[in-house]
Amino acid sequence: ILLGVAFLLGGCAERDNPFDPANRTIVYPNPDTTWVPIPSLHNKVFLPDSVRGRDSPYIGNLQTAFAELREGDTLWIQGGDKIHDLGGRLTVRFGGSALMPSVVRTFGGRANLRGLTKKGLPPEVCMDFGGSYVTIVGLTFMNCQTAIQAWGVTGPLTLDSIEIQNCNKAFDSLEVKGRVKLHHITMTNITDSIPFSFKAVDTLDTLEFKLVPKD
Question: Collapsing DSSP states into helix, strand and coil, what is residue 141?
Fold first, then answer.
């Protein structure tokens, strides 16, 4: 009997393990737009309207949120009608690992990120990958010179349900030692004559990778 109880408890623990890939299935969009994630050790929540003082469990700055992303973390970004202006680039410095990937996803709908510096100019890069084993889901990038850059990354990257609008270039990838997975990507009004570049990438996996012509 004790052995059976231990087996059941072990199964529950495995199902509740946040690093178990079976528990990290990406579903977009989330049908419940009112649900808000609760911050915890590996759940980081960007919800600027709820930040109240230094002891707030929520994060109010996107640059800080991305810079602090570590193995096994899920960063939740507030979505919906609100547009989040980026004062500069978002940098994924560390990322995850094969057993503990890092995930960035949204709640309340798609998250809209607009490149806008203090001088009113688009930043050179909106998102810069320095870490690997990272999955990004459900973001829209607008008004960037280059929306997403990945140079010298030593592991796989996944981008799913990403929209890129009104940018000079959508992707710029160089020497990525792993699979670059681009699924359900829509690029609209990309002004550069070379809208995306993938050089020395080990494996490129694309599905519904669409470029919409300029207006």
Answer: strand
pLDDT for 164 beyond 70: yes
CA distance 96 to 122: 29
Compute CA distances 163 → 16, 97, 157, 181, whole Å.
31, 26, 16, 15
Beta bridge partners of 188: 165, 212
0.85 exceeded by pTM: no
Average pLDDT score over residue span 6-35: 49
Dihedral sign (CA 211, 199, 74, 10): positive
Burial of 183 (0-12, 13-18, 19+ CB in 10 A): middle
